[in-house]
Amino acid sequence: MSNKEVKDSNYYIDWLEKSIANEYLSYYEYSEFKNIKQIGNGSFGSVSRANWKNTDTILVLKSFNNSNPTLKEIVNELKLHRDVHFNANIIKFYGITKTETENYALVLEYADNATLKTYLNENFNELEWKDKFCLALQLTDAILCLHERDIIHRDLHPNNVLVHQKSIKLADFGLSKKIAEASGSRSNIFGVLPYIDPKTFNNDYRLNEKSDIYSIGVIMWQISSGRQPFENLEHDNVGNMNQMNVQIYMNFFLPLN
Known about the structure:
This protein is α+β, with helices and mostly antiparallel strands. Helices cover about 40% and strands about 20% of the residues. It starts with a helix and ends with a helix.
């Protein structure tokens, strides 16, 4: 780890510790959570389901490795949750804890219907149009809340949209940024390819709210049709991804005959 990375990591750890000490963040002892069961993991850390003390209340513990990129992500997510926690269609943030391995973890609301992708796969045939309309409206409301506070999500796809008791819960703000910060630098491709604004393929494109709006449009199409975008192509195949890039680019930029 370089001197700069060490300095940055220390900055984020100091920010977390000061925020806890000043009661800017609610801190919970890890021993207060029972029946902890891991339900997901990735390069950032892991996601676990847990009960709060000796109650039936279910929460999510989203832990992060104590490395510079993930510490930066957790601090960024905490700051953004503070600005939008009141919205009913955004996953609620309760506080922070420290796991047995000394990694910080967010304490978050649990969504009992899993991701939107899973929810559509399992329930699409039972959904009426009014149900689909409600899902689309709730997603739009959550994004509007972000945009009204000059925040762009930048990583919208059905695995980052949760469903709790048949209602949308927007999650994962690790890649989100204030619009002024994001648009001040050249954009990179974030998220899952079929949901990405095609203009992002242009390295000179400045990120803005329209990038999220494009992603919402694709998700709405999936809600209404029950189908995966570009379902005939495997997204994890490099050749197919290049083909998808070309297809999206041509459909978006070339005029219709």
